[in-house]
Amino acid sequence: MIRSSFNDGWSFRRKTDAFLEILGRADAPWQDVRLPHDAMVGLERDGADTEAGQRGYYPSGAYQYRKTFFAPEEYRNRRVTLEFEGVYRNARVFINGDFAAQCAYGYSNFYVRTDHLLKYGSDNEIVVEARSGNDTRWYSGGGVYRNTKLIVGDLVHLALDGVRITTPAVDDDLAVVAVATEIQNESPVTRALEVLTEIVDADGTVVAGDTAPVTTFIGDTVTLRQRLPVPRPELWGVDRPYLYLCRTSVMADGELLDQETTRFGIRTLTVDPLRGLRINGETVNLRGACIHHDNGVIGAATIDRAEQRRVEILKQAGFNAIRSSHNPMSKALLDACDQLGVLVIDELFDAWTRSKVSQDYALDFATWWESDVRAMVGKDFNHPSVILYSIGNEIPETGTAAGAAISRRLAETIRSIDSTRFVTNGVNGLLAGGPDLLASFAGESRKKDSESLDVNGFMTRFREFMPILMSSEVVGSKTAESMACLDVAGYNYLESRYEQDGAQFPNRVIVGTETYPADIDTNWRLVQDHSHVIGDFTWTGWDYLGEPGTGRIEYEGDSETTNSALNHQGGYPWLTAWCGDIDITGHRRPASYYREIVFGLRGEPYIAVHRPDRFGRAVRVAMWWSWSDSVSSWSWNGHEDRPVRLEVYSAADEIELLINGRRVGTAPAGEKNRFRAEFETVYEPGEIVAVAYTGGRETGRTSLRSATGEVRLEAAADRTRITADDTDLAYVALTLVDGAGNLYNTADRKVAVEVTGPAVLQGFGSADPRPTENFFDTVRTTFDGRALAVIRPTAPGSITVTATAEGCEPSTVRIEAEPSGPSSE
């Protein structure tokens, strides 16, 4: 089949009333857009609607996309299919005014057969309609936010997602690669075919091949199975993610009818409570990050480069695994994980039959769950990075017999399609325990309606009681049946049960599918000490839009920002959750370096300075997902000679602190002190140095210098050569610094960006969790001295990005957009 991008040539508008449109009174103009496109992120936020808080106070809406494309006569005897990798939500597709397909779930890829509706030798109109509303607990975005493809093939062709590769036998000398190939004959005659399957290594050398005959009768779908021995295989793993290519060719009488190329990895995967998770026979502890699907300042638009960059930064920060919370991830993200060696838990749903918000997936689950399961597993099957399928997140039904039955049905459906991976489920003990758990804890016999339980509000107020509450026998008994159908039990905030459940359920393997960021030191010790606990996934690795203020800290005297209707969230203008190790621009926050030290991946100490203007102020709200309110900077203009508190993160025994060469003091660090040395001192501009000692010997040091003199605006692109197609982006970091490059985090100001050449400003913003500006404004205010502009090429050529700010010389970056190769495969 020939697959080509279908992302260009679209127009978009807010959906209008059909009768007004017929009367010519539709007032929503069409705008040209290039997919992937987020229809929601460009709308103005409004704090008046508290129900919109969970999605960051963006308004809901209905959207229309349309595109005209020419179908040549030669398509008449071909199979023409459209692929939509993700449309949010309740997508309906029309071709030349006629209904063609729909998909209820906003995160499933789906295919649309077009042949019966196309006009050959003529233009054809494709219209996609979608809507988003009070249907999710986070920022969903809206519209056609993932890639689209046009797929053209012969009437005798490989089935869509029809090549499935496994590696059932692997050792140092030989790997057996088993390839199952589905072939469909939609022609009017029986066809005698030959299928050539070749395994190609990273250098382009064919290392194994097999040709097999297969007869396909009219209307048949047949499966051909071939086993190919690959000598001295290169294995795929997190440290060396080696990828092979499987090239599948379908021929008849020497004519090539169809061909597909599929990337895959050769690896083994086992899990048990005694040896944990093993990849290629070696134990791997999962250093995991939960992530949402949005891409920060570009919203939910899933442009390939944005996904790849995110995986690059997560891996640099020490993570080796990602959990997609709480929906199937994009193909581009899976490709990046394959290429970079990051393991994946791909998750299906946030709701089954019980709603968490009024219009969520629970309304569609009974009708759509099986097709959505098949879509996710079909998408994931050949990706070596995928090791676990998660059937849900914090599903209330897991504490009931009916919920256990759904768990089994989901798990067995997955296993019937793919028996090579493991199945998990992110279980929340509070939700699963429900009224019985709360009644037992409170000593009350009266049971409350579980659907009226404000779980996040309860958890916010009663964190100190949670370990005791989660250790209750009620949690163990209520979740036992649902856990029994899993290969790996997913524990959300249930680390207090790791040891007791290891004894009570000796055959159970556990993964911490969701944990608090501040608990990583104690949680990681549990992972290291208990073989049946295979990893920890923090909430969250990367900050995200929606669930605003989930990780905020509020001080006495701050203006009221809490949303009373959703009291674990901040009121408008809060936008981001503010709980990620990495902020929405890709900048690593102090928590990220702390985690890297806990993981044993960083030897140098790290200095995090609490904002001095908040010194001594009582904390009014500190959410469970919060980190300390700190910045790695020693530039606090206007706070000279005022007290300041700071932390130094280190695995060393002791930290010595120096300011301008003067010894301030020492403090213990290391694991016994939760990897933190804490100091109070007085801010004095100059240089601050932290020196780490273990056993009296220096093991590392780090320093920060105060910014001095004029403020400079520095622009730097992540890459100055990009590809001029719909998959690539350039990220331009804008930073306020002094002449020596020291951060001016207290000199925030408005920065303007101008783009000239064949490109557009795809998004522009900062990590400010409470902005009032729009990501499509050309002027934005820096936050802690930083902002980020995202540039999308529109054609080959030279692109110039010029940034200006008051009191600063302009800063310019030049980016070359180079022609892309063939768009088909």
Automatic annotation (TrEMBL):
Residues 713-813 form the Glycoside hydrolase family domain. It comes from the Bacteria. Gene3D superfamilies: Galactose-binding domain-like (2.60.120.260), Glycosidases (3.20.20.80), Immunoglobulins (2.60.40.10). Residues 643-699 form the DUF4982 domain. One of its GO terms (molecular function) is hydrolase activity, hydrolyzing O-glycosyl compounds. Residues 277-424 form the Glycoside hydrolase family 2 catalytic domain. Residues 160-267 form the Glycoside hydrolase family 2 immunoglobulin-like beta-sandwich domain. InterPro entries: Beta-gal/glucu_dom_sf, DUF4982, Galactose-bd-like_sf, GH, GH2_Domain-Containing, Glyco_hydro2_dom5, Glyco_hydro_2, Glyco_hydro_2_cat. GO terms for biological process: carbohydrate metabolic process. Signal peptide: none annotated. Keywords: Glycosidase, Hydrolase. Belongs to the glycosyl hydrolase 2 family. This is Glycoside hydrolase. It comes from Parafrankia soli.
